C-alpha cells in the first residue's frame, strides 16, 4: 500500500503542485485568448480569416509537441524524480511566455515575427507536456487510496483556473490603459496585449519559490533508496506489451474524448461566440468567466464521487451528454445573437459613420432592440442602381441581460461536461501504471489525447466552417466523431475497477 501523508501535508502538496500548474496553464492560454489580436500583430494584414487560422495553427502547434515533452520530461521524472522535473518545465514555460511578449510585430521584422512566435510556442508545448503528468502523479502518490480521485481533482481545476486567470488579466489590462475606454482598447490592441505575457515572469518566480520547498514523492523516494527505479522508462513503458496495451487503452478509451470535450467547451465555444456569433470582445470573455466560475467546483464533486462509484462511467456519460447536445447548445448561441429574432427600437437607431468605398457607400449604424441588445450594423449599398442588393452584416453585438445570462447558462452546461470527463481522469491514469514508469506512461496518452486530439479542435472546427460556409455548426462534427469513437472504445474495453494500491 502507498504511504499517504497527513491531512495537513496533503493540502501543502496539492497547493504547491496546483500553483505551478495553474501558472503554466495561464501561460499557455493567454495565447489562445488573444488569438484575434495576435493574428493582427504577427501575420500579414488583408485577410483576417487566414490570419486567424494561422494563429490557431500556431496555437495548435503547441499542442502537437506536447507528447514529445511528455516523453522527454516523463523520462526525466522517472529517472531523477518528480520535484526537479517540475522546476525545469516551469522555467521553460515562464521564459518562453515572457519572450513572446517581446517579439516585434510583422510590420517590423516581417515573417521572422510569426516564426519566432511559433518557436516559442513549441517550447511552451514541450514544457507543458512534462508538467501535468508530474503534478498528477505527485499528488496521487501522496494521497490515501480511498480519496485519490478527490485529491487529484484539485489538480484538474488548475487548467480551468489558469484560463480564468488569463481572461481576468486580459480584461483588466484592456480596460486600464487609459481613462477613456475606446482609447484604452486601442492601446491594448496596439501594444498592451504584451502585458499579460510579461506578467507571467512574476507568477513563475513565485511558483519556483514554492516548488523549491517541496519534497520528493514518497513512493519515488522509496524506489530510489531501494535502487528499483527504471533505467529505461521509455523502453519499459512502450516495449512491454501489457503496458503498451494500457497506454493505448488510456488514449483511445479516455483521453482522446476527454480532450475534444475539454477544448470544445472552453475554447471553441469562446471562438464560436466571438467569431461566428459576433458577440463583442468583452462579453464573449465575461460569459466564459462566469460559466467557469460556476462550474469549477464540479471538478471536485465528480473527482470525489469517482472514489465511490468508479471513474469510468462518470467520464463516459459526460462524453455522451456532450456529443449528443453540442448542436442544440451551439444553435442557442446563434439564436440569442440573431437580429431576426429581435424587435428593433427604430427611434433609437443611430448612424455612426458613412463612407464611400469604390462605387458603393458603407453605412455603419448602432441598432437598439427591445430586449436591451445593441448591435453594430454595417450596410453596403451601391451608389447607382445596378440591381445589386444591399449587403448587411452585424458585428460587436452586445447582448441584453436576458440573452447574456442565457449564454452564460449554456456555456456553464458545456463546462460542466468538461468537469465530468476531466475530474476523475488523473486518478484513472495514475492507477493504470506502476510507480517506476508512471510519469512516462501516463503523460504520453494524456498529451496525445488532450493535446493533439483536443488541442486541434479550435483549428479544425474553424477550418470546417470556412469550407462549409453555409453551415456554421459544421465545425462540431470533429469533436462529435472523435468523442463518439472514444465513448464506444471506453464503454467496451475500459474497466470501472479502482486500484487501491498504486505502490507497485
From TrEMBL:
Keywords: Cell membrane, Membrane, Transmembrane, Transmembrane helix, Transport. Pfam families: Sugar_tr (PF00083). It is a multi-pass membrane protein. InterPro entries: MFS_dom, MFS_sugar_transport-like, MFS_trans_sf, Sugar_transporter_CS. CDD domains: MFS_ShiA_like. The chain crosses the membrane at residues 50-73, 85-103, 109-129, 150-171, 191-212, 247-267, 287-306, 313-330, 407-430, 451-470, 476-494. Residues 13-502 form the Major facilitator superfamily (MFS) profile domain. It is found in: Cell membrane. GO terms for molecular function: transmembrane transporter activity. GO terms for cellular component: plasma membrane. This is Putative MFS family arabinose efflux permease. It comes from Pseudobacter ginsenosidimutans.
Amino acid at each position: 500500500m502507498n504511504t499517504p501523508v497527513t491531512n495537513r501535508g496533503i493540502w501543502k502538496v496539492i497547493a504547491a503542485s496546483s500553483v505551478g500548474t495553474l501558472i503554466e496553464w495561464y501561460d499557455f492560454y493567454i495565447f489562445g485568448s488573444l488569438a484575434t489580436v495576435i493574428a493582427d500583430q504577427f501575420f500579414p494584414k488583408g485577410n483576417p480569416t487566414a490570419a486567424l487560422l494561422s494563429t490557431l495553427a500556431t496555437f495548435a502547434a503547441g499542442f502537437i509537441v506536447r507528447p514529445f515533452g511528455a516523453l522527454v520530461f516523463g523520462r526525466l521524472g522517472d529517472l531523477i524524480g518528480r520535484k526537479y522535473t517540475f522546476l525545469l518545465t516551469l522555467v521553460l514555460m515562464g521564459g518562453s511566455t515572457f519572450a513572446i511578449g517581446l517579439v516585434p510585430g510583422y510590420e517590423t521584422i516581417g515573417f521572422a515575427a510569426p516564426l519566432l512566435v511559433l518557436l516559442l510556442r513549441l517550447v511552451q508545448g514541450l514544457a507543458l507536456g512534462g508538467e501535468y503528468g508530474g503534478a498528477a502523479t505527485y499528488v496521487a502518490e501522496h494521497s490515501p487510496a480511498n480519496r485519490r480521485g478527490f485529491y487529484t481533482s484539485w489538480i484538474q481545476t488548475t487548467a480551468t483556473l489558469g484560463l480564468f486567470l488569463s481572461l481576468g488579466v486580459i480584461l483588466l489590462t484592456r480596460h486600464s490603459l487609459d481613462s477613456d475606454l475606446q482609447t484604452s482598447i486601442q492601446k491594448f490592441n496596439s501594444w498592451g496585449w504584451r502585458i499579460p505575457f510579461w506578467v507571467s515572469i512574476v507568477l513563475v518566480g513565485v511558483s519556483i519559490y514554492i516548488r523549491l520547498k517541496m519534497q520528493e514523492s514518497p513512493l519515488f523516494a522509496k524506489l530510489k533508496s531501494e535502487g528499483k527505479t527504471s533505467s529505461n522508462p521509455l523502453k519499459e513503458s512502450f516495449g512491454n506489451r501489457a503496458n503498451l496495451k494500457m497506454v493505448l487503452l488510456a488514449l483511445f478509451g479516455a483521453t482522446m474524448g476527454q480532450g475534444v470535450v475539454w477544448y470544445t467547451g472552453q475554447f471553441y465555444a469562446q471562438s464560436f461566440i466571438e467569431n461566428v456569433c459576433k458577440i463583442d470582445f468583452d462579453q464573449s470573455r465575461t460569459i466564459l468567466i462566469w460559466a467557469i466560475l460556476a462550474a469549477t467546483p464540479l471538478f471536485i464533486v465528480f473527482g470525489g464521487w469517482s472514489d465511490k462509484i468508479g471513474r469510468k462511467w462518470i467520464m463516459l456519460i459526460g462524453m455522451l451528454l456532450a456529443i449528443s447536445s453540442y448542436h442544440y447548445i451551439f444553435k442557442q448561441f446563434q439564436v440569442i445573437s440573431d437580429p431576426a429574432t429581435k424587435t428593433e427600437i427604430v427611434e433609437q437607431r443611430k448612424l455612426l459613420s458613412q463612407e464611400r468605398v469604390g462605387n458603393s457607400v458603407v453605412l455603419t449604424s448602432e441598432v437598439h432592440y427591445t430586449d436591451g441588445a445593441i448591435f453594430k450594423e454595417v450596410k453596403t449599398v451601391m451608389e447607382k442602381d445596378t440591381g445589386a442588393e444591399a449587403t448587411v452584416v452585424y458585428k460587436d453585438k452586445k447582448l441584453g441581460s436576458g440573452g447574456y445570462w442565457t449564454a452564460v447558462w449554456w456555456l456553464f452546461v458545456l463546462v460542466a461536461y468538461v468537469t465530468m470527463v476531466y475530474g476523475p481522469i488523473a486518478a484513472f491514469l495514475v492507477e493504470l501504471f506502476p510507480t517506476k514508469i508512471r510519469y512516462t506512461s501516463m503523460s504520453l496518452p494524456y498529451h496525445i489525447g488532450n493535446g493533439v486530439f483536443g488541442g486541434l479542435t479550435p483549428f479544425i472546427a474553424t477550418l470546417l466552417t470556412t469550407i462549409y460556409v453555409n453551415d456554421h455548426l459544421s465545425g462540431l462534427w470533429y469533436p462529435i466523431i472523435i468523442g463518439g469513437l472514444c465513448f464506444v472504445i471506453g464503454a467496451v474495453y475500459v474497466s470501472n475497477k479502482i486500484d487501491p494500491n498504486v505502490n507497485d
